[in-house]
Amino acid sequence: MFENLSERLGxxxxxxxxxxxxxxxxxxxxxxEVRVALLEADVSLPVARDFIKAVEEKATGQAVTxxxxxxxxxxxxxxDALVDVLKGEGEPEALKIxxxxxxxxxxxLQGSGKTTTTAKLAKRLKDRNGKRVLxxxxxxxxxxxxxxxxxxxxxxxxxxxxxxxxxxxxxxxKRAKQQATLGGYDVYMLDTAGRLHIDEVLMDEVQAVRxxxxxxxxxxxxxxxxxQDAVNVATEFDGKVGITGVVLTxxxxxxxxxxxxxxxxxxxxxxxxxxxxxxxxxxxxxxxxRVAGRILG
Length: 297
Ligand code: GDP
Fold this sequence. Notes:
Blueprint: H1 3-18, H2 24-40, H3 45-59, H4 62-65, H5 70-87, E1 102-107, H6 114-127, E2 133-137, H7 143-156, E3 159-160, H8 169-182, E4 187-191, H9 200-213, E5 217-223, H10 228-241, E6 245-249, H11 258-267, E7 271-275, E8 283-285, H12 288-295
Parallel strand pairs: 1-4, 1-5, 2-3, 2-4, 5-6, 6-7
Antiparallel strand pairs: 7-8
Helix pairs in contact: 1-2, 1-5, 2-3, 3-5, 5-11, 5-12, 6-7, 8-9, 10-11
The structure holds guanosine-5'-diphosphate.
Guanosine-5'-diphosphate binds near residues 110, 253, 278 and 282.
């Protein structure tokens, strides 16, 4: 998911580590290349700037340039700065679904991979966490979307709320809550309707649902291939409905990865999961250390 960035940084750091002794100017020149690589990966400008500044302050110090392995020290500083920007403070380790039945609200634009992600996450909660999960589609405009969730549910062995024609999203959400309570489910996941663009009607609907079910988590699903747009969508959704985390999909594609690096710094919200394919198992938790390691090869 970070092939290009990883390759670019790899060549900068290869040169740096082979060079032996380093002056602060050598380090600064290398960091200029890192900055360009970040921008080419579609990392937002202020994030790239702050990142380089933080690294430069540490990496041009005496302790680094006078050390026997200055190149490696710089790589280590970059690694730690990547972990910082990916993780941020106080990242919750897991989804808070300890108070059954907990609602998980899934929001996002149409085509972002929301329904697929809902099912992937339901499967994960069932298989790995032993949770009883109920899924419900609130997409009253698109019967096909409701059927899609039902089909996925059958495929992964997770129950879906029976479809009743003519209900509003809010009515479906309330019925899901009731069914989850009566049926002894741990979690009920609400796959809200997506639109092609963020609009007031969509936001009003999501707000009404949110107020009715008081979700433990509101996860925004965004297409990781859209780079900075993904971050803009997250900012808007957070402003309107309040999100607790982000799932970046299509990170198996040849995206430039910038969304992953900017998301936390810009929105203050953690990336919880990444989608890595169309299959139901292609969902990974997002761990800053591992991702930083992947970026640096
Ligand atoms: P929705 O409109 O947001 O509910 O989007 P869907 O869940 O229907 O997904 C749209 C398309 O994206 C489907 O063909 C999915 O299989 C595909 N998709 C979803 N997540 C991923 C992912 O992580 N990687 C890839 N390659 N495809 C994905």
